[in-house]
Amino acid sequence: MTAGRCTHSLDIRDDVVIKRYTSWGRGEPHREWAALILLAEHAPDLAPAPVEAALDADPPMIVMSRLHGTVLRGRHATGEQIKAMAAALNRLHQIPARVVDEVEPAPWGPAAAVAKTRAWADKQPDLGDDPLAQEAFRAGAAWLASTAPDELISNPLPPVLGLADGNRANYLWDEHERRVRLIDWEDSGRNDRAFELGEVCEHISRLDGILDAEQLLAHLELTPVEAERVRSFRLLIALGWFLQLGPGGPATPHNPAGTLERQAERILHLLD
Description:
Largest sheet: 4 strands, antiparallel
Number of domains: 1
Strand content: 5-15%
CATH superfamily: Aminoglycoside phosphotransferase (APH), C-terminal lobe
Oligomer: single chain
Helix content: 40-55%
Strand order of the largest sheet: 1-2-4-3
Radius of gyration: 18 Å
CATH architecture: Alpha-Beta Complex
Distance between the termini: 24 Å
Order of helices and strands: EEHEEEHHHHEEEEHHHH
Shape: globular
């Protein structure tokens, strides 16, 4: 969860996309290539197909098949599109656990999110003078100081392969086939399913367009344990974005006016 980070450039051609990495200190090219190979075997056509790679070049480069469609960021997601998102996530999360166990852990997951969000809260970020934002900060900081976030770190359920990035720009709607595919696997890895779903529901891109998170979750057949963990992760991720949205905050330049207030409302709703 880093606001405004750009790690690559894209050369989009008729049949393929060439991705060149502008930063790769966290192993992004290797992560993406490994994920594309795994997906081609276990969930073909859910993501771009791997074509070739130069992972140790300077800069590293991956060539993958081009998927046609429109990203869901900035759109009012329809019921059909939300159902297609859920179908894509269900298919991704059905990759066998024995396969996922061999995948490197994602760099952004429960432990990292808990630690980073608490660190942001401890800095007492300037969130301006809006009373709603101040109320949301107090309530959110109290939750972060409790034992509830610590209970999220250990996953009682089998891990899944995840994007570790809930940006709706990673969800590509194919108007012709009426389906959703997933792109941008550079942060991917083994992760907690509930965390992944919390990311999808609460990534700040939800404010760029409309996504009915409750409708999405209703299509995912969550167990009671998963449902409760998803709600807690939603709060954690929403708080992480909220704490970056004050005057001069790192997420502020990338979001429209009023985002802080809308995010404060979200925090209080999730805490209710």
